[in-house]
Specification:
Blueprint lengths: L1 H14 L8 H9 L1 H28 L11 H25 L5 H22 L17
Length: about 140
């Protein structure tokens, strides 16, 4: 009990010089970087749709009908997610700093749009929909 009181007094004593609104810097940052938060929100939404679509396809159909079949589907997912969450927004921000124009929007939102579309595609795959393509080795001329 004594430690709790000492800890409480220490926190209150050190907390006195703190500003009245501790979120003031956060709101200031969010106000000046709206475009960054929109890019990250789009990237995380696309990643969530891709993940759910991949999981749903593998649960319903097994790995044969889904992306990468028995290969590294989750490795592909994490690679695309890392590119869309880290690399594409950084490239778009540097493009906007260099006054790149409307092309920067393509850098920022094309990756998340692809990932969301691919997740929706995986969500809609049924086992009978994806037929195995004939191999060129099996064709007889």
């Amino acid at each position: 009990m004594r430690r709790l009181i000492i800890l409480l007094v220490a926190v209150l004593a050190l907390g006195c010089p703190v500003a009245a609104n501790p979120f003031a810097r956060t709101w200031h940052f969010a106000g000046h970087h709206k475009r960054f938060f929109l890019m990250e929100g789009a990237a995380l939404t696309g990643a969530a749709l891709h993940y759910e679509g991949l999981n749903d396809c593998r649960k319903r159909n097994g790995p044969e009908a889904c992306d990468e079949h028995y290969g590294s589907a989750y490795g592909f997912y994490w690679f695309v997610t890392a590119v869309n969450v880290v690399a594409m927004p950084a490239a778009a921000e540097s493009c906007w700093k260099g006054d790149g124009g409307k092309f920067c929007y393509a850098l920022a939102y094309s990756g998340p749009a692809y990932q969301a579309g691919h997740g929706i595609y995986e969500w809609r795959v049924s086992h009978t929909e994806r037929a195995v393509a004939p191999s060129l080795l099996k064709l007889r001329f």
